[in-house]
Amino acid sequence: MPYPDRFYPVVDSLQWVERLTRLGVGTIQLRAKELDDSQALQIVSDALAITKGTQAKLVVNDYWRAAVVAGAEYLHLGQEDLADADLKAIREAGLKLGISTHDDAELAAALEAQPDYVALGPIFFTTLKSMRFEPQGIPKITEWKKRIGNIPLVAIGGIKFEHAAEIFAAGADSIAVVSDVTQSPDPDARVRQWLGLSKEAP
């Protein structure tokens, strides 16, 4: 299976990890904020227990120490976390690493770390968190993909299922989705839509 999968939901709780795993999602990012080291280790360990023996690949957001100790395989870092992380320890633990980017300087920093994928965002306006960056827009996806070549490109930020075809056509390899699933009136049906689109893709 490719990594990350074309449909890449980002959630903040074990309940969501369990729900998405049950639905057959291939790549799930756990992004839980404001945890201390012991809380981070607990939630990462619990999430790995949920996904063990399933097709789901659990991506740990930010908490690289917990990811290493718990034996995770996948990690995602924002730029602030990247600056503080021990990349040598992360690589020695065998973690695959994805990195967020928003501008040229961040892309340069990300590429220096030799990531397994690069994320670009926010593509559209998002209300989920206050962003220092304006929406990037779809043309930026094409530009970023040209610059990173064979490294998978993940588009994130305000993307809905209805945008997917255009985002993929612009060059994204994967779409990270938050509110389009978690705030959907019928999350399970929405997930199945996304999974159906993923299956149709080459």
Care to give the gist of this entry?
The protein is built from ten helices and eight strands.
Looking across the biggest beta sheet, what order are the strands in? 1-2-3-4-5-6-7-8
Mean pLDDT: 95
| Percent of residues in beta strands | 15-25%
Helix content bin: 40-55%
Structural class: alpha/beta
| Ends apart, CA distance between termini | 12 Å
General form: globular
Largest sheet: 8 strands, parallel, barrel
For the secondary structure, the number of strands is 8
SSE sequence, one letter per element: EHEHEHEHHEHEHEHEHH
The radius of gyration computed from the alpha-carbon positions, rounded to a whole number of angstroms, is 16 Å
Which spans have pLDDT < 50 for at least 5 consecutive residues?
none
